[in-house]
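Working notes for the structural subgroup meeting. M.R. asked for a predicted model of this chain before we commit to crystallization trials. I am recording the input and output together here so anyone reviewing the notebook later can reproduce the run.

Input as submitted:
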Amino acid sequence: MNKLLQDVLEAHGGLDRWNRFSTARAQIVSGGGLWPLKGLIQDAAPRQMRISTHEEFASVAPFGQANWRTSFRPDRVAIETLEGEVVKELADPRESFARHTLTTPWNPLHRAYFNGYAMWTYLTTPFFMAMPGFEVREIDLVEESGERWRGLRATFPAHIASHSREQDFYFDEKDLLLRRHDYQVDVAGAFPAAQYVDRVVDVQGLKMPSRRRAYVRGPDLKPVRDLLMVAIDLSDFEFS
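Returned structure, recorded in token form:
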């Protein structure tokens, strides 16, 4: 493990503390321009997100109906009742995004898959980088608003679903807390995104950003502020 990653993990609460927990929960409110591009209606109602911290599993409720939830794993996504009865399911869901562009409509299972892998990635950052199979190296820092942010590039193993195989994470040079997350959204035409995070809160000794805003990223690595694709506000975190 490289030195910057070690320091980043410690700044976010430490790997020993993270390893005490197996589940994370949070309330989320989502918005942004991606949903109408996909033919979806995204309301401002709060939803409950639950993930496993050491394996890739996620579920959000309610989803579609008051008594429905999602069940996401990389090789299967499902919509089910709160009692566990399957409503719809799809094996090998990544294959269903073949030849998709930014404006290709999504069905509810597409949406459930995207939500599952994205929220798992966000709620486990930066600790997933210490899991087996991840390759992490330091990259050039960036300067924004008079601040210097140090970078880590994470290469995801094939068995972990996420936005793209390579993703870049930038941490404030002073406190080493996450400030920005860059990636390509491969399931939506591979458009480049720059996601900014802030309003960091302390949750049982772990540092978690409670606001995320993802913009289309220009060729100069600058965000296109008029193109807000995804907005997520998080609250009521709990680890167990």
